[in-house]
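Practice problem: predict the structure.
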Amino acid sequence: MPLIDPDILYGDAMVLRADAWPVSGPRGPRGRDGAPGPRGAEGPEGPIELGGSTSSTFTAGAEHYFGPDGAVFAAAADVVPGRLIGKQRSERLLTVKCNTIPPGCQLMLTVYQSTDSGASWQSVANATVTAGTRTKTETVNVTLAANSLHCASVAVDGFDYTGPVSWLLHN
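Answer:
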């Protein structure tokens, strides 16, 4: 059987339009939403770097300790309470910044950790800024224990250093 076009031309040149047949029915109701998906991976906790700074006069041949508030002490045991690390973290770089070091001199910064509430301190990372420079980044690959304290020290060789010292453990 031949198909007839919906527009039909009659003899008196009048065009009548036939109604088109619907191709499909009306849209059905929306289906139910599925169950929530699984929980995503846990993101990083807190800041991704750890550091501190101080400004003082550091005498040659002595080690000067400082904590998170920047106050300088003669012994690590005096740095109370240090800064508490809540969760174990691993860092791979230590960056130190200071004023330009004069020829024949150097400045060494050491980061310490205490796992016994400050009764004893162990060196976990260090970096030495050499003559003619003012920054140094060392690869250290250090893991800081959960619930441990940390502080830093500055030791200068060949001169008395006056000025700022900043450090940053980071990835």
